[in-house]
UniProtKB/TrEMBL annotation:
Organism name: Dipodomys ordii
Assigned protein family: Belongs to the CELF/BRUNOL family.
Protein name, as recorded: CUGBP Elav-like family member 4
Pfam family, one: RRM_1
CDD domains in the record: RRM1_CELF3_4_5_6, RRM2_CELF3_4_5_6, RRM3_CELF3_4_5_6
Annotated GO MF terms: RNA binding
Gene name of this polypeptide: Celf4
One GO term (biological process): regulation of mRNA splicing, via spliceosome
Region (Disordered): 19-43
UniProt main location, coarse: cytoplasm
Any single GO CC term annotated in Swiss-Prot or TrEMBL for this entry: nucleus
This protein's record includes keyword Repeat: yes
The UniProt record lists the keyword tRNA-binding: no
Length: 472
DNA sequence: TGTTATT
């Protein structure tokens, strides 16, 4: 349809551009009259555009070209109603693209077919883009996001994969600045039904060579979703991702509520005889401490905040978990900590290492929680070199949160990630923890490497840098 | 040994 219309429009272009100003292309007649019977004799000096005019997006424009430079290039396809180079809102910097509206729909179609991907402007390494602006598509319900592509696959490859399900209006591989595929693409069909058919047939249908999971085919993010995504990324960069790490910040009350909640959970679970992962861990920790005759001081990574605070309880000690978790009758407390008010075990980083250390948690947990701020999912973040740990032989039950809990006592954990098998959702029993400084990482290694949990001993090492290929 | 990426 597009091609046919464009062809017809081409034939009419001279005539049309001379004789009409949009009146011939009124909505009612546009469907079948396009290009065939522009009624002549309605000239106007006021710039007017067709009601069905198309706003075009023009991409890959050299940044040294402004509106007046671009005008001649596009004018040859028809009378221009509006041409605006996109500029950065704050810096005013040329963004390398523009919006262009012709007075007539036909001019836009003609320009698109003549120019889109057809030539490359000086200084650009990719061809010019001329296509209807996203704002024109009205609802992104025909556009698909395609993920888990092979990075070698081209636009044509993707087209071939999708063409059986409908008319593809647009197909774009997402690429980084270097031009390398990001392994995903957008495919836009003429209709929602076509897009849906492609999803039904292709999503999960195959796994591309080199991809870590099967093909993803879904509707592309809406503007709103895209905005949300951006906000999340920003929040992550600003370090707002983890309420536990900022107990005295804006979310202090919420963090504390979380801790109380968790403490309550642990208490009730312990009473029920089932050990949640943290309780199990705590039990194992105590057992180990007993075996090594640690008194909680030797490896203490952090110092008390004040002189009258009891000397550092070694990180993972959990003084006040109610105690069916004791192993072999060992109830848990190093001598120095035994009998001390647990709530005073505040560490240098301001974090109570374990929520169970809050006496307040027992008995008055049911008070209303403050309105929680929206929980922003933690994004994986690598710390600087020397701050990232690789941890192997984690208990099967450990998730990101438990992993973080386990390492929080050694410093500021900026990220924790347990790898999960995508098919089964089972932990692969290894993960990463990142601190914001190397000393915390070293302390954590000293304290936790070889640490026994159940039948296994944790392996805690610096994460292998990306370039180093050899295993340990 | 940081997996999935949204013009």
């Amino acid at each position: 349809m597009y091609i046919k219309m464009a062809t017809l429009a081409n034939g009419q272009a001279d005539n049309a551009s001379l004789s009409t100003n949009g009146l011939g292309g009124s909505p009612g007649s546009a469907g079948h009259m396009n290009g065939l019977s522009h009624s002549p004799g309605n000239p106007s000096t006021i710039p007017m555009k067709d009601h069905d005019a198309i706003k075009l997006f023009i991409g890959q424009i050299p940044r040294n070209l402004d509106e007046k430079d671009l005008k001649p290039l596009f004018e040859e396809f028809g009378k221009i109603y509006e041409l605006t180079v996109l500029k950065d809102r704050f810096t005013g910097m040329h963004k390398g693209c523009a919006f262009l509206t012709y007075c007539e729909r036909e001019s836009a179609l003609k320009a698109q077919s003549a120019l889109h991907e057809q030539k490359t402007l000086p200084g650009m390494n990719r061809p010019i883009q001329v296509k209807p602006a996203d704002s024109e598509s009205r609802g992104e319900d025909r556009k698909l996001f395609v993920g888990m592509l092979n990075k070698q696959q081209s636009e044509d490859d993707v087209r071939r994969l999708f063409e059986a399900f409908g008319n593809i209006e647009e197909c774009t591989i997402l690429r980084g600045p270097d031009g390398n595929s990001k392994g995903c693409a957008f495919v836009k069909y003429s209709s929602h039904a076509e897009a849906q058919a492609a999803i039904n047939a292709l999503h999960g249908s195959q796994t591309m060579p080199g991809a870590s999971s099967s093909l993803v085919v879904k509707f592309a993010d809406t503007d709103k979703e895209r905005t949300m995504r951006r906000m999340q990324q920003m929040a992550g960069q600003m370090g707002m991702f983890n309420p536990m790490a900022i107990p005295f910040g804006a979310y202090g009350a919420y963090a504390q509520a979380l801790m109380q909640q968790q403490a309550a959970l642990m208490a009730s679970v312990a009473q029920g005889g089932y050990l949640n992962p943290m309780a199990a861990f705590a039990a194992a920790q105590m057992q180990q401490m007993a075996a090594l005759n640690m008194n909680g001081l030797a490896a203490a990574p952090m110092t008390p905040t004040s002189g009258n605070t009891p000397p550092g309880i070694t990180a993972p000690a959990v003084p006040s978990i109610p105690s069916p978790i004791g192993v072999n009758g060992f109830t848990g407390l190093p001598p120095q900590a035994n009998g001390q008010p647990a709530a005073e075990a505040v560490f240098a980083n301001g974090i109570h290492p374990y929520p169970a250390a809050y006496p307040a948690a027992y008995g008055q947990i049911s008070q209303a929680f403050p309105q929680p701020p929206p929980m922003i999912p933690q994004q994986q973040r690598e710390g600087p070199e020397g701050c990232n740990l690789f941890i192997y032989h984690l208990p099967q039950e450990f998730g990101d949160a438990e992993l973080m809990q386990m390492f929080l006592p050694f410093g500021n954990v900026i990220s924790s990630k347990v790898f999960v098998d995508r098919a089964t959702n089972q932990s692969k029993c290894f993960g990463f923890v990142s601190f914001d400084n190397p000393a915390s990482a070293q302390t954590a290694i000293q304290a936790m490497n070889g640490f026994q949990i159940g039948m296994k001993r944790l392996k805690v090492q610096l994460k292998r840098p990306k370039d180093a290929n050899r295993p340990y």
